[in-house]
């Protein structure tokens, strides 16, 4: 619980600081003037100073879209949605620019319970889940205190059941918050940046060629072997690609 609160406050602080950073407004000014390369430099300065936010990544994605750098644009839209899954502008722009990529990768539907869990944990940011966890924890503590003081057996029994239910809700909220925090902090997917990248059967240049990915393709990263990464596509295909050909989300 303590770890969840600390990480939540850190994320909230960096998000607010990113928007308040002078380079963020400078980037907005350059973008409005059509100076997209300068806007990117300004936005990246915010990131280099240790701050991040969904809006910062969204703006970077927009600037790279204007420069027709598809891979970078997809990377930053994905980063924005990683921090804020409900960012509709980032999602819409990502869908639009993904339709411009060369690869048409079939998506294998996830199991219903996996979709349900992901949707449930994404209902709130870690900060929201942390407050909900604390609320249920306080209510549960108050319920148990009243249960111990209550002399009426029927009311005491109901208070006990209610407190147990609140403890259950506390655990659920804590697990959901930890899961959401894990979704934000994990780095197990990437975007192909090179115009084309050969995916091989082994982590070396002599491995047999399996298929080719192009700029903007998104892959799950399963493991790394020196300068090679084992990737998996949404259609289940796997193989090894050179690490320099992609950037992690």
Tell me what you see in this structure.
A hairpin with an 8-residue loop joins strand 2 and strand 3 (209-214). 59% of the residues lie in helices and 14% in strands. The longest helix has 33 residues, at 153-185. The strands form two sheets. It has a five-stranded antiparallel beta sheet. A two-stranded antiparallel ribbon has the order 2-3. The radius of gyration is 23 Å and the shape is globular. With 249 residues, the protein is an alpha+beta fold. The two termini are 26 Å apart. It has helices spanning 2-20, 22-32, 36-48, 54-66, 70-83, 88-98, 112-121, 126-149, 153-185; strands spanning 189-192, 196-200, 209-214, 218-225, 228-232, 238-242, 246-248.
The best one-word shape is globular
- Helix count from the secondary structure assignment: 9
Tell me the strand order in the biggest sheet: 6-5-4-1-7
- How far apart are the termini? 26 Å
Unreliable runs: none
Largest sheet: 5 strands, antiparallel
The H/E string reads HHHHHHHHHEEEEEEE
Mean pLDDT: 88
DSSP, total strands? 7
Helix content: 55-70%
Strand content: 5-15%
Which structural class is indicated by helix and strand composition?
A: alpha+beta
Radius of gyration: 23 Å
């Amino acid at each position: 619980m303590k770890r969840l609160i600390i990480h939540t406050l850190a994320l909230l602080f960096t998000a607010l600081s990113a928007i308040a950073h002078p380079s963020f407004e400078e980037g907005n000014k350059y973008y409005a003037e059509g100076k997209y390369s300068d806007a990117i430099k300004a936005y990246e300065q915010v990131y280099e100073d240790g701050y991040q936010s969904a809006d910062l990544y969204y703006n970077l994605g927009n600037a790279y879209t204007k420069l027709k750098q598809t891979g970078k644009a997809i990377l930053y839209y994905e980063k924005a949605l990683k921090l804020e899954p409900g960012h509709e502008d980032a999602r819409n722009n990502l869908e639009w620019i993904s339709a411009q990529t060369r690869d048409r990768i079939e998506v294998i539907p996830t199991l219903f319970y996996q979709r349900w869990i992901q949707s449930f944990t994404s209902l709130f940011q870690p900060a929201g889940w942390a407050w909900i966890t604390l609320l249920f924890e306080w209510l549960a503590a108050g319920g148990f205190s009243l249960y111990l003081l209550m002399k009426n057996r029927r009311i005491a029994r109901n208070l006990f059941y209610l407190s147990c239910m609140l403890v259950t809700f506390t655990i659920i909220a804590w697990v959901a918050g930890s899961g959401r925090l894990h979704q934000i902090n994990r780095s197990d997917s990437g975007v192909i940046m090179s115009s084309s990248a050969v995916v091989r059967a082994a982590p070396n240049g002599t491995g047999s060629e399996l298929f080719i990915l192009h700029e903007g393709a998104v892959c799950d990263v399963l493991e790394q072997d020196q300068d090679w990464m084992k990737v998996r596509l949404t259609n289940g295909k796997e193989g090894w690609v050179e690490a320099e050909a992609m950037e992690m989300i």
